[in-house]
Structure formats: structure tokens, C-alpha cells
Sequence to fold (247 residues):
Amino acid sequence: MLRTATGGAGTGTGTAGDRLVSIGTVLSLLREEFPEVSISKIRFLETEGLVEPRRTPSGYRKFSPEDVERLAQVLRMQRDHYLPLKVIREHLDALERGEQVQLPASAGPCDPLDGSPESGIDRPTAVRIGRAELLAAAEVGEAELDAWESYGLISPMPGGGYDAEAVTVARLVADLGRFGLEPRHLRAVKAAADREAGLVEQVVAPLRRHPNPQTRARAEETVKELAELSVRLHAALIQTALGVRLH
Fold:
């Protein structure tokens, strides 16, 4: 559920209050339901014609309550139905014309963001999707996915298909690509993640081998906690490094 710009809870539809709001406010409203959304994502959806905010004389974007709700609808259809933007646009246009359009049944959460916004952790689910669905979710073509796989950023599951984590990675890599970051630039990020995963495995390995079932059961909770702490530390270190370099 999205909140209004004044802080009150909505009634099932996302609004930004009775006044126009900035893109930063829109980001805050959407992140309550979509923690992974970014300003670059909102701008991308604008360039694709999914939303048309007004512009001030100085060129700043101003979004209406209807704009915020429309963005929320787009993000839900991407997350829950794996629909490409072209199909989403046609669906929303049909709704505006008063037509009744049925979406495909959801196969489960496409974007497994069950973690807190502070942690940045994406919880895995049992979802398995095909290559076409992954391409639609990330809004990229075959060439981009081939490049990501060649650099080890994305890997199919044994037996084919991709898990929910692959969707999250694909979307993040696609967003970074819009800033000019190519898969080769992200090899260091992948290598660092592999090293951090190795450290976590070293810590929990004794727990998993412990004869006490309760101790073994705590291993998975320990993995989640260590992963959250690792992500938060990584983000803090990047912020610190950027702060030093930019000042």
C-alpha cells in the first residue's frame, strides 16, 4: 500500500496527495511497496511512455496522484505477471478507454523483495521462469542476456530456467547498463560477492555439520543475518568511499 504525500495511508491505490510532487517524493512513495525501484527506473518508464509527468518552466518533473498510481500499476504488472512494457502500455490504455482486459494469472512473485529496504536483501522463492519471461522482466534483448551469462552475472538453474534471484540481478544489471556500465565493468562486483559468500559459508559450515538439529536449523537464519550485514556494510563502504572522493 502506498502512502499519501502527507503521510496518511492510502485505501488500496497509491496517491501522492492532492498536489503535484517531485520525482524524489514519488520514489519514497513507491519504495514502500517496491523497495528496488530507483529514480533511473522512473525516468526510464517515462521515456517508454508509461507515464507523462508535467514539467515546471525550469524543466523539473511534477507527478500527479494518477501518475503515481499508474507507475505502481506498471511495477505490479512487471513483478506479478512478467509482462513487457508494450503489453503493459496497451493494457493501461485499454483500461483508460473503459475496456475490460484480463491479465495472465500470476505464477508467483517475480521480484522476490521480501527483505527490508534497509538491508537490500532479496528473499529467494521457489519461482522458476523461462528465458522469455526473464527478458521481459529485465526489458532487455537476447544479446544482453547472453553477455551477462558469459560474464557469470546470471546463470540458468540446473534443468533450465531461472530463479527469482536471477530476475533481481537482471533488473539491477539492466539499470546499471543505462548508466553505461557494461558486464565487463561488473566482474569485480561479482567477484566480491563470491568472496563474501565464501566467508558466510565458512561461518555457517560448522553449524550445518552440528549433531544438534536445532543448531543446524539456525544455520539458515545465520546465513540471512550475515548476508544482510554484509550488504549493509558494502553499501556503507561505497558511500564512505564516494564521500571521500567527491569532496
Summary: The first helix runs from residue 23 to 31.
